Amino acid sequence: MAPGVESIDVKEAERRQREDSGRPLLVDVREQHEFDDVRAPGAVLMPMSSLATRIAELPADRPLMIVCHSGSRSSAVTGFLARSGRTDVVNVAGGMDAWERQGLPVKRGAPEPGEGDLPG
């Protein structure tokens, strides 16, 4: 994990996504094929490979929880966003691998129209 990157575990991420009135956004930074295989319900897809050109699309009025497969890419992205001035961003430690192992809800297969899109 990158130094100075705030992290939460998958159970806390799922709880925040479900219960937090601040409406945190779960941002999946894996690639499309990985997202198609398995994803958290309600996650938005913004692959790390296109993040630099799409960073302005991330909502400034919602906390961000960054997730990948195991936590490496999401840690790097969380650090990048923090260095870019975001103060409301956390890494989801363990990624979708840990999410699945903990038995949290997942979706599989081709996303439905609009699934994975940023809100708004």
Strand order of the biggest β-sheet: 1-5-4-2-3
Helix content percent band? 25-40%
| Subunit arrangement of the protein | single chain
Overall mean pLDDT stands at 94
Please count the helical segments.
5
What are the low-pLDDT stretches, counting only 5+ consecutive residues below 50? none
Strand percentage lies at 5-15%
How would you describe what is shown here?
With about 120 residues, this protein is an alpha/beta fold. Helices cover about 35% and strands about 15% of the residues. It has five helices and five strands. Strands 1-5-4-2-3 form a five-stranded parallel β-sheet. Strand 2 (about 25-30), helix 2 and strand 3 form a beta-alpha-beta unit. It is globular and about 35 Å long. The model has no long low-confidence stretch (mean pLDDT about 95).
Per-chain topology:
Blueprint: E1 7-8, H1 10-19, E2 25-28, H2 32-37, E3 44-45, H3 48-54, E4 64-67, H4 72-83, E5 89-92, H5 95-101
Parallel strand pairs: 1-5, 2-3, 2-4, 4-5
Describe what is shown at a glance.
The protein is an alpha/beta fold and 120 residues long. It has helices spanning 10-19, 32-37, 48-54, 72-83, 95-101; strands spanning 7-8, 25-28, 44-45, 64-67, 89-92.
